[in-house]
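job 3f2a | input accepted
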Amino acid sequence: MPQCAAYGCRTGPGQGKKLHHFPRERSRRRLWEQKVKRKNWVASDFSLLCEDHFDETQYERARADGLRKLKPNAVPTQFTFTPRPLERCTRCCKRRDQPCLGRKEHVQLDHSYCSTECPTSPKVKTDIKDGLTDNVCTDGAVSGDTASGDKQLNISKNQCVEELRAEVARLRRQMEENAVNSRFCLERFSASDEDIQFYTRFASHAHFIAFWRQIEPAANKMVQVTRPCCIGLTNQVPHAASAMILQPVDEFFLFMNYLSLGLKLKGLAQRFRVPRSAVSRIVNTWADFLYAVLGAVGIWMDEETVRAHLPDVFQDYSDTQIILDCVGLRCQKRRSLLLQSEVLSSRKSHCTFKGLIGLAPHGAVTFVSSLYEGAISDKGILKQSGIVPLLNPSMAVMVDEGFLVGDCLPCRVHIPSFPSKRTPLSGSEVIKTHVERLIRRVKEHKIFSTVIPLSLTASINQLYTVACLLVNYEHGPLVKA
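job 3f2a | predicted structure (481 res):
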C-alpha cells in the first residue's frame, strides 16, 4: 500500500488524512524532492505526501462539500527530521596527548563524552595546505589554555604533513625504480659494469657514457631510414620528426645489443617492447649514422706516434707500423650459382665476405677496408683496400705466415716464426698471442660469429666497419703501462 514519502511518516490510505501526489511538472517535483530531504531518492508518479506536511496557507478555500485542494504553487514545508545520533570521539580518547586530527568521519562526533584531557571541542575548521584538506578541532585544551592548545595543534599538524611528504617521496621513488626495472634500457644496468660489458662490449658504464657524450650532439641531427626502395637508395626523414619510441641513448643501447650479442630482430623487439619494424629502422639508422660519424675520424697514425706507444715485446721489430690480417665473415648461400661463385671461398669452402683490418702494435685499429667477395685473393684485397699509398719504405708491416703479399708492398714485411715446441714463451710467441688478442676484440661482436643472412647484404659493410672502429672506444689499452 502507498504511504507518505516523508521520512518517519507512516500515513497511508484509510487513516482519514488527505494524500497528495507529487506534481507532474519537473521543476516543481524537484522542489518537493528537496524539501523531503531523502538521500539519493527520486519521486515517481505514484509517490505521495500527506496533508500534515503542508501549511494551511497552501490550501485553497474549502468547497461546499468540505474537500480541500492544494494551490497550484503549493510547497510542503512541515517536516520533522530526527538528528543523527552522535558517536564518541574514539581517536581523541585513544591518544589523549594529541588534539583531534580526525577528518571527515570526525566532523560530527560528539566530544562531550571525551575525557577532560582531550584538548578538543565541536568547533571545526578546514585547513588546506600542500593539497591536503584536514578537518581539525581548534578550540585548544579543555583546561582553558587556548594558546597552548593551538601551539600543540600546529606542532601535531606539521608532524602529520612531514610524515605524509616523506611517505609520498618514498612511494614516488619506489614507483620510479619499478618502472626502470620493468624496462630493458641502459639505466637498468647502469650500476653493473659487468652487464654493460656483456651487452655492449664497452669496458664499463663510464666508457659507454663518455662515448655517448661525444656523439650526442650529432645524434640530434640524425636522419632515420624508413624504407629501402632499392640498393643504395632510401627514403629518409629527420630523426627528430619521427615517432620516438625509445630515447636516443636507449636506441644506441639497442644497436650495441644487436652487434654484441647477435640477436634476432624479434628477440630485441621483445626485450625492448617495441615493434619489430621499429627495431629494423633503429639498426639501419644507427649503422649509417655511426658509419658516417666514426668514418670521419682519422685513425691512421704517423710513425712517431706509433713508436711512442710501441710495446716492449716489439723492440726487435721497432719499425713495425701496422699489423695486417684478413677477417672472414660467413654469409648465407645464394640461389644463383653465379652469385654464389663470387662469394665462395676456396680456402674455407663456404660463402664468405672478406675484409682487411690493420692494427697498431699497441692495440689501436688504424685501418679498416670495405668488405669484398670471398673469392678474392689476399693480394687482390690488399691492392683494392687503399692501404698501399699510406706506406713508405721507412715503415714495416707485420703479417701472418699465410699472408703472402710481400711483393705488393713498398716496405719491409715481418713474418715472425712461431716455434712448435712447448718452450718458455719466446718473443715471437708473445707477438702471436698479442695479434690474436687484437683480432679477437673485433670478433667479440657476436653478429660476425653467425651466418650473415642475405637481408643484411646491403648494410653488412656499415655494420662491419662500425664494429671495427668501436674497438678503439670499447676497451682499455691492450698493453698496460
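job 3f2a | The first strand starts at residue 19 and ends at 21.
job 3f2a | closed
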